[in-house]
Specification:
SH3 type barrels; 5 strands; globular; binds zinc ion
């Protein structure tokens, strides 16, 4: 997210936020709860993540996406999520073919 987008965020705005404490950088929906404006530096933004815990987070600017998601700009966290999900799919396919192989052998 660009600085001008970050500084234009307002309370109540829906966003998607990466969990930087999660090794997979999972992307979760959330809502802007607090915006602390600052002079000459980007604002501090607090987001309530949707879910059972309704956790409050103060993410880095680049860990937040505005909605609708704009895929024109690369995001290394989204790339990690995509690679992990592709890897899981490939692994599932491999397991499925192994299962077929075992059935064929039996
Ligand atoms: Zn991302």
């Amino acid at each position: 997210m660009f600085v001008f987008q970050w500084n234009s965020m307002r309370v109540g705005e829906r966003v998607m936020v990466h969990d930087d404490l999660d090794a997979g950088f999972g992307l979760a929906p959330g809502i802007v709860k607090y915006v602390e404006t600052r002079d000459h530096t980007p604002n501090d933004v607090t987001i309530r993540v949707d879910g059972e815990t309704s956790q409050l987070v103060r993410p880095r600017r680049h860990a937040v996406h505005m909605l609708p998601l704009d895929r024109r700009f690369s995001c290394w966290r989204c790339d990690v999520v995509a690679k992990a999900s592709n890897g899981a799919n490939a692994s599932n396919e491999a397991n499925a073919s192994n299962g077929d192989g075992q059935r064929a052998a039996a």
